[in-house]
Amino acid sequence: MKIAIFSNDKPKSRTFRNKLSRELRDRNIILTSRDPDIVVTVGGDGTLLSAFHRYAHQLDRIRFIGVHTGHLGFYTDWRDYELPELVEALTKDSGQSVSYPLLDVYVEYFDGGHDHYVALNESTIRRVNKTMKSEVYIRNELFESFRGDGLCISTPTGSTAYSKSLGGAVLHPRLEALQMTEVASINNRLFRTLSSPIVIAPDEFITIRPDAQEDYILTVDSFTHRVRPISQVTFRVAKERIHFARYRHMHFWDRVEDAFIGSKQSHVKRS
Ligand code: NAP
Ligand code: MN
Question: Where in the sequence is the signal peptide annotated (predicted)?
């Protein structure tokens, strides 16, 4: 088994990475950043996002594990003080995994070119200087005319990130669905949007056709692409999925509670 350790630059993360490397080498596990079977990320959810994009071309053969050196994350469920348990789990690995849906982003330009991305959290199309005007199609049928700052399409695991700040619902990651949320839509006689988030089915796709302008920003997770004139962007559930090595299970709603509410422990103590 080959393992890659991918950490951010925080001292706590680097210390953990060094300790983990030593422990794994002592057990004759190969550490390599090329063609790993398992990628252990050390840092936060942002670190896992970076690692995901670093290995996006090998998603079918890689399993990820997230260790957090800050707060509990959505992709990072091991704590840095659990190093012995993690080493034990890795040495006894028998291929246990769980996988989640990803977002496929297909951008077409007026010049005939195209770009293709896969997102773990979300992709947004936005305009900063003026409002964005665009038509939104679902399965090639015109759905609405949008005017506002932009639109966000997120995966179920991305529903606790930017999408949530935009008023989106939190989706259980076992659902194979995508959610579209609006960023400050203007509603008047000319432009009318649904004004609430929508969740589409696995076989559906959303196409956004913005007005011909040059200053759109397309984001894919932590990446920002300042793109040339776009004719349309199509979003659908990707063929690929992200796999995590699952050595133990934490219920999704426990994680949501811990991240956003956090009152359960004190409540239990009181009663
Ligand atoms: P960042 O600015 O460092 O991350 C923003 C925050 O989002 C961090 O606290 C990060 O957690 C958290 N996060 C990332 N993925 C998450 C998820 N699936 N569920 C819950 N929280 C999550 O930038 P970054 O680390 O490169 O992450 C990029 C992501 O930030 C984008 O994909 C977008 O979802 C999010 N974002 C959110 C807003 C907003 O809510 N207004 C605005 C821009 C971007 P860690 O601290 O553990 O890294
Ligand atoms: Mn971050």
Answer: none
